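Dear support,

I submitted the protein below through the web form. The confirmation email said the job was done, but the results page showed an empty box. After a refresh the structure appeared. I'm attaching both so you can tell me whether what I see now is the final result or a partial one.
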Amino acid sequence: MRAIYLLLLLPPALLAQPGAESLAGLLAHPREDSALWHRQVGIAFYKVGKIEPTVEHLQKAIRLEPSNEQYYLDLGEVLSQNNAREAVVVVIEAARKAVGESFRIRSALGVAYLSIRNYERAREVFTGLVKEKPDDEMAYQLLAECYDITRDWENTAKVAENLRALNSRNSNGWYYGAEAEYGIRRPEGESLKTAELYVRRAMELAPGDWRPHLLLGKVLSDSNRDREAIGELRKAIALKSGDPKTYYILGQALKRLGRDKESAEAFAAYKEVRERHAAGQRTLLVDIK
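What the results page shows now:
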């Protein structure tokens, strides 16, 4: 499944703490009754790659100050980064009960539902966000992602059109529009020219986004333009090397061109990345009561 991260929604609070105190300094002056101290210790552990103590201290921060929305989002971010998807749902659902249904909390909850493939609940959340804030681009983007993942192309197209109307320079409106065009036209053997036009516009607006390169690679492959497709797929890999399906599509395109050695290398990379991704799933238990 394509991953969509809390980092897409929220400022990466734990990763953007350049002024945070050192771990040794914090532990030398413990303040066990301070939620802020536990958050700072959690951040310090996170920066040195110690996930379990990070989770422990962030949970303590929540217990000490259960009304602080940011602490739940911090913990959700750590869990999301470590693919502990069920735990993210537990944390954000607890946040909703403790601090109310803020836009940020509901957005994070919808993302958490997406990550565990509870698409119906995710769609309910994102639809509610769009109704509440019909001029919010992120709400439309999240709803488009939900429809895209479930291959509801007609609704993906509608939401993408609304997003482009809100902001024609938001690359996601063009990207999801291209996804919908591709999903609708390809099974019928129809022209993919509009999909190509939309996805190239997305690339212009967000050159660092790997997704349009992957999609363009698929569009070109299905248009019997494998040589061009290979270039785009390699660009997608350069921008994001951890997506297994890109290697698989690349291997297919290379094989069709008779480049068997390169094709075999791409398929081997596909297998390796897929296995690494599966091994990266973690079970992290949370107890914030």
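Response: this is the final, complete result; the empty box was a page-load delay. The domain at 1-117 is CATH 1.25.40.10 (Serine Threonine Protein Phosphatase 5, Tetratricopeptide repeat).
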